[in-house]
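Our collaborator T.R. sent over the components below with a one-line note: 'Predict the complex.' Nothing else. No constraints on interfaces, no templates requested, no preferences about which chain binds where. So this is a plain run: every listed entity goes in together, and whatever single assembly comes back becomes the starting point for the next discussion.
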Amino acid sequence: MQPVSRRKFLATSSAGALGVAGAAAIGPMASAAAADDEPTPDQLAHTGPALLQVHDAAKGEVELLIEERSIVFTDKRLVARMLRASK
Amino acid sequence: MSSHREAPGISKDPVADNTDTYAFRTPNNTITIITNYLPVEAPAGGPNFYEFADDVLYQINIDNDGDGHANISYHFRFETRNTNPNTFLYNTGPITTLNDATWNRRQRYSVTKVEQRPGRRPKVTPLASGVPCPPCNIGPRSTPNYPDLANQAVKQLRSGELVFAGQRAEGFFVDLGSVFDLGTLRPFQDMHLISTAAAPGVDALANVNVHSIAIQVPISDLTRNHSVPTDPMKPEAVIGVWGSAKRQKGTAYDRDEDHRRYGVGPWKQVSRLGNPLFNEVIVPLDRKDEWNSVKPWADERFAKYVRQPELAALLPMLYPKTFPNLKALNGTERKDLVAILLTGIPAGPIKGFQNFTGTTLADELRLNVAIPPSPTPKRLGILDGDLAGYPNGRRVTDDVVTIELRAVAGATYPLIDSTFKPDGAVTVIEDGTFKNLKRTFLNNFPYLGVPYSGYNVPAA
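Returned assembly:
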């Protein structure tokens, strides 16, 4: 799978079911501020698939499934952008 | 069935459906453990014959200290490939070896041993990779010498284990058609609430196949102190065994032009099997999927269904006047069933025997490895004085339906209360399949019989 930019990832994601399958182009997940940063090359180095699942849009709670791990984080801006992309 | 399609969720995912688990002593101080998947395979089910799933993690788990957690797990992962892109056929000629170019759809697998260590990361040891599965049994033209093909797929690993993964004849026998028709037992249906003339039992699984993962392991690899116990009364002589299947939390199809499905994220258990019929008969329908998702250490939450089993209440109702003593017993905590299914049988009730693992309530197939194999196995195992049979482990020939039916009906309650007298019917009640059983088991690994071929059993 080709790495994609964060902008392209969000623009092309299928967020209708609040789930996004695509490359792991998401960098630091800890805060909304970090989510606004441009990703660094090492953050885009992952080549396997990843899934994003929005558990609770109102709270901005997102679960990243990657490799054999699950990472739950809060990013209201990311969720808002995903939902906008579905409209 | 033992655990075939026993829960709503897993009934829709047969490749991950863990149907039976067997564990028993075998020659040279070894234990053979078999876990089955893919229930009720119609032998003629081509052109896409049955196979393991590449996106499922299959496990055989051993608890050797009684806490309901696996101390040792063997992980099996499969990889499937087609060798000929230009044919719709499973095979384009006879398959006589596992390397034949005529065989188009192949599976190989890896085996990994995972050992849990208190306070430390698990020890992960790859034992083998690229181990071939045999093909399914197609028919006399495609698989002319199936036993030989299957034997080629029995592999001795450098670490000492013997492994096999592939199709086998179903070993479990039961009269499904009757037991799910309001608890009918054909030989006794003249006494049923809705009575008809008594009739012989019908083995509903007589002509179907299953996919088995089998491993034979030195006893010393599995016991808590790596010993080969000879005293059955020693705690280290008992191990608990169960099979399981896991899927990754996320599953998706890849890009539109590629129909490949992939899994990603942590592994989640979707099926397990320790004692036969536990989820099938003990756990209410509404909680069967939950039971499949949790580990044995969490089985306390299901213990109330063992203490007061629904089946024990149904028997006196379905067979009026046949189970008066059981009817009177109902309402009493069934400590005998708790022991058999959740803790193991403690020392005392059966002379020279125990398979007690402690107070943790966990559905595990408990095996006292110090009990040697019986030279004359009895189908009713411990109920008939054969300490090498169920519920001390489980052999492929054990009649677990009858054993558990009689236990629930009160046969084992005298182990707890010697004043209790089981009803007369308890000594004879059964589904009647064993009397006309037409199964052939093997005397050696992997013990389950040669699978039925699609040609010879065109309509299962």
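Summary for T.R.: DSSP finds ten helices and twelve strands in chain B.
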